[in-house]
Amino acid sequence: MRIGVLALQGAVTEHIDAVTRCGARAVPVKTTAELHEVDGLIIPGGESTTIGRLMVEYGLDQVIKEKAADGLPVFGTCAGLILLAEEIAGHEQPHLRLMKVRAVRNSFGRQRESFETDLSVPVLGERPFRAVFIRAPHIDSVGAGVEVLARVGDRIVFARQGHLMASAFHPELVDDLRIHKLFLEMCSA
After folding, report:
1. Quick check: 32 and 6 in contact, CB under 8 A?
2. Which residues are annotated as catalytic?
3. Which of 19, 45, 138, 158 is 20 to 30 Å from the Cα of 88, by its Cα?
4. 126 with 158: CB under 8 angstroms?
5. Predicted structure pTM score
6. What is the percentage of the chain residues whose pLDDT exceeds 70?
7. Superfamily of the domain at 2-188
């Protein structure tokens, strides 16, 4: 199984390392040809406006949409959540509009308000997941078929819609591989 990590900007190396530690092959994806070679795609955290513009510039956005429509599993973290969202509250930028969610950018504040917390994620079992939030978004509404996987207070921070998954936090920055393993299970299903 080959998992692609969109390598335009952001936490690419960290996701490649996490996928590799899970026992799968991870490859950076920068071209449309490379997109056709993967069994799943991770869109990492970074700067969502920059990643969105580069996706459009390189023609990756249309290929990602086509591949996702054909069932390619896609996992977006932080900026990746924003890029997967159908709508971005109060902000217009290039994005994929794949998940029936509305994202709110910088929901928890700026860089200095970044934090870590233990999340209850029932799909991962009883043990909490240590989540790292850096200028994190959240999901403020979901459409039909979207499963809410975790919240911080009343803010949705982790969700899944069929073969699409998004987190407001950075699972690649902790040693706990359960979320990456969950994505790999989606890719092999």
Report:
1. no
2. 78, 170, 172
3. 19
4. no
5. 0.96
6. 99
7. Class I glutamine amidotransferase (GATase) domain (3.40.50.880)
